[in-house]
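Recall the central idea of this unit: under ordinary conditions, the amino acid sequence of a chain determines the structure it adopts. In this exercise we apply that idea directly, starting from the sequence alone.
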Amino acid sequence: MSTKIFKIIPAVALAFTFLACSFLTSQFTSRPSTSEIEKEEQAVYSFFVSGSDPVLILQNTSTNISDDDSQQMVDSIKSSFKEVSNETLDSYVERNKEPSQLSPDMDLGVKYVLLSQPETGGYFMFSRVGFNNALDQALVYVGHVAAPLAGSGSYYLMEKKDGEWTIKEEIMVWIS
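Accordingly, the structure predicted from this sequence is:
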C-alpha cells in the first residue's frame, strides 16, 4: 500500500501544479475589456491635446500607412522601438486594419470638435492605440497640422507609470 501512495502523491502534486500554473498564466495574460481599452485610449489621446481648448480632431482615424507599405512600416516600428512588445505591436496592427471613427463621447479633459474633413490647419489626427495586455505600454500615431504646409506626424511608444502616460520614444515619419 505504501508503494501505491508514493505513486499517487507525485501524480496529484503534478496535477495540482499544472492547474495552478494554468490558473496563474490565464490571470496574467488575460486580455483587457473593451471598456478598459477605450478608457486608456482616451487617456493617451488626452496626453496630446491637454492644454488646448477647444481642440480640432479628425474623426476618421489615420495611421499614415498605405496597404503597399504596411509591413515595411511595422518592421520599421519594430526595429526603431527596441522596447515595443509583440502584444502592443500586434494590438496596434489589429486595431488599425481598417479606418474607424472616433467617438464624440470621448472624455479628453478638454473641449474638442470632431472634424469630418481636414481643415486648413490647427487639427490633430490619431490612429487607434495599440496596447499590451497589462495596459501599461501603448503605440499610437499622431499627426498635427498647424497650418497649410506646417505639420508633422509621428509614432509614439508610450508607457504608463504611476497612472500617467508618458512618451518613451518617438519616430517622426513626416514633416512639412
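The first helix runs from residue 2 to 28.
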